[in-house]
Predict the 3D structure of the following.
Amino acid sequence: MSGGSGTLVLQSHRRPLPGRWLERCIASVRGWAEQHGHRYRFEDDALLARLAPDLRERTRAQPVIAADLARLAALQAALAEGFETVVWFDADTLVLRPAALVLPDAPYALGREVWVQRNADGLRSYVKVHNAFLMFRRGNPFLDFYRHAAERIVRAHRGPMVPQLVGPKLLTALHNLIGCPVLEQAAMLSPAVARDVLRGGGPALDAFRAGSAAVPAAVNLCASLVGREIDEAEIVPLIDRLLRDPDRLGP
């Protein structure tokens, strides 16, 4: 499934970046794209200009949802531009093992989320999918429907919207029904797992390994939780440790 005008890798974030550590994440994705011969493009807040005015207004207080919607329009536009394959990585995604991160031979793919957190009744693991990584090939059956469904949900929603509404929540509901293709190596680290990585091990990291079907080659570091559930001072040593020993995340 190759040919056409090749593969375009898209990323976006407002400038200036809120943390210098994000530059390392962005550089890791850009380096991965170059290593695999893919085109790379970065957009700033101009990404949001792709939203219809009513959607921009409805998501004014929810920048995560706005970005979730805008990326779908950007990916559609890139396919219409003539690219055979388009790939999205959130700006807070770190590529750990670039040679092992290979796009699947599928019409589209989502990322894998093994979310580990401590609840009142102890440590719990939730296996889901996420949109911090997305891949769509020309002619895929999913992207147009996903954008249509996400926009209808936002327009119809009443009351407060959780940030994950049209990202992991919608995608996981669809995945549970139809079994979407998943790139297992495109993972996500919860703060509990990140802290265990920094400690050199622990029950949250063990649960993450147990729930993962493959050794992660890229991990989303959940920038939206930095300063709330994990300290910014922990992120740089976390990146250093992950890059030094990426296999520590493996099952």
In short: The chain has a mean pLDDT of 94. Helices lie at 21-35, 53-58, 63-81, 143-156, 165-178, 191-199, 203-211, 232-244.
